[in-house]
Design brief:
Elements (H helix, E strand, L loop, with lengths): L11 H7 E4 L2 E4 L23 H12 L16 H10 L12 H5 L4 H9 L10 H8 L24 H5 L4 H19 L13 H17 L8 E6 L5 H18 L6 E5 L2 H6 L3 E2 H5 L11 H10 L5 E4 L7 H14 L12 E6 L16 H19 L4 E5 L10 H9 L1
Parallel strand pairs: 3-7, 3-8, 4-5, 4-6, 6-7
Antiparallel strand pairs: 1-2
Helix pairs in contact: 2-3, 9-10, 14-15
Length: 418
């Protein structure tokens, strides 16, 4: 707007594409120098779009010479869309720019163009890297290297809409609960049929009876013998099916007596926990990834509320559970149920389910390793975990591979594969 008089007739597009600002003055570029003027943001040229007024504003100030914006409008209140319409009706032709074009976006393609379009239909949606943007705008210049200090001055930053990004800041608050929400929705969408407990066989039925008998005594305000069970079985022998049956039966008994759900199912990994509709060990017990720290104050009170009414804990995929983690589970249980802190796991009934021939623990010592190995590698926690694991003296082994039995379409296909 303060350009010299000899540039009076030049628009913003003309000035920026044919002149350079050097030494506090406008210097005309050589005729052989071609500059592409990139204009952001690129609003939609659709008259029905909410930002069409902004599109018309960009078009008018880009191609109409002015020193004061009021000189290119009839009044301060005149909409830019109306001003743009007057411009087009008056026959004013705008030179080609990098803004979107309504006519080009809506023109009919002939057959040859349509076939060519199908060869790469997503090319217009592809985003450029920084070096591609620089190379296209300045074909004869060296590609610069950017660092942290250059944030905001890179070619890719030219198209960053700050105002639009501000409307998304509230999404940060949703990140903390997004994963739990996705898991909840996935579990709600999955319809799991009830378990017919009469289909349990052999060891499955014996394990269920142990749970039911123990819970009956708890409901009668008795102190049953603590269950510390080892349940072994290879893939397909019905471990997950058994866990679901136990949870279903205990939940039924608790509902009949107006009690809270007495069982919690845990797993070392998120995928394993999702498969059994449970939780990960670390999230359920607020265990740190490295070391161990006692909970205090509000955090401990919240954990105690969450564990109210829990008498049974089933841990799936025990092969991935290490001695150090087992010791931390014991310490956290003693914190949560402090009135029984003198007993292992505060007298909770624990079952370790899985197959030791599967994945071993990461950065930890397997439960079956000798105490000397545990003490060397994991210190006191490893030693304590080794001692705790040797309390699980009652074992059951599931030996019937149910995936190879039956005549359902899925089982028949599996049998054919075998």
């Amino acid at each position: 707007m303060k350009r010299p008089p000899d540039m009076e007739s030049l628009s913003l597009q003309d000035v920026l594409s044919t002149y350079s600002w050097r030494k506090l003055k406008w210097c005309k570029k050589r005729d052989t120098t071609k500059t592409v003027l990139r204009v952001y943001p690129r609003f939609s040229p659709n008259p029905e779009d909410d930002h069409y007024e902004d599109y018309c504003h960009s078009k008018v100030i880009l191609h109409h010479p002015f020193r004061d914006l009021n000189t290119i409008r009839d009044s301060d209140d005149q909409p830019w869309a109306e001003n743009f319409a007057q411009c087009r009706a008056g026959g004013h032709v705008h030179p080609k720019d990098t803004l979107r074009c309504w006519e080009e976006e809506n023109r009919q393609l002939d057959e040859d163009e349509e076939e060519e379009e199908l060869l790469n239909p997503n090319v217009e949606e592809m985003e450029e890297d920084d070096w591609q943007a620089w190379a296209r705008l300045r074909p004869t210049d060296d590609i610069p290297l950017y660092g942290v200090d250059d944030l905001g001055r890179q070619p890719i930053d030219d198209g960053w809409d700050i105002e639009a990004s501000r409307t998304n800041w509230h999404d940060v608050d949703l990140l903390s609960s997004w994963i739990d929400e996705q898991k909840r929705e996935a579990q709600e969408q999955e319809i799991v049929p009830p378990i017919d407990i009469t289909t349990l066989e052999g060891e499955q039925w014996a394990i269920l009876e142990e749970y039911v008998n123990a819970y009956k005594e708890i409901l009668e305000d008795k102190e049953p013998r603590q269950l510390l069970l080892n349940v072994d079985g290879t893939a397909g022998c019905g471990k997950t099916y058994l866990i679901r049956a136990i949870c279903q039966e205990l939940h039924r008994m608790a509902t009949e007596h107006d009690e809270l759900d007495p069982i919690l199912v845990l797993a070392p990994s998120g995928m394993a926990a999702l498969n059994i509709h449970g939780r990960t060990i670390h999230s359920a017990l607020s265990l740190p990834l490295n070391g161990f720290s006692l909970l205090t104050g509000t955090r401990l009170a919240t954990m105690q509320i969450q564990w109210t009414g829990i008498h049974f804990v089933t841990i799936d995929e025990k092969s991935m559970l290490g001695q150090r983690t087992l010791a931390m589970i014991d310490l956290r249980c003693r914190q949560i149920f402090s009135e029984k802190a003198n007993n292992p796991f505060s007298n909770l009934n624990i079952a370790l389910v899985g197959d030791f021939a599967q994945l071993p623990p990461v950065g930890n010592t397997p439960l079956y390793s000798p105490p000397s190995s545990a003490a060397t590698e994991n210190g006191n926690l490893g030693r304590d975990g080794s001692v705790l694991y040797r309390l699980f003296t009652r074992s059951h082994r599931l030996q019937i591979v149910h995936r190879q039995l039956g005549d359902s379409p899925e089982q028949v296909r599996f049998q054919d594969l075998l």
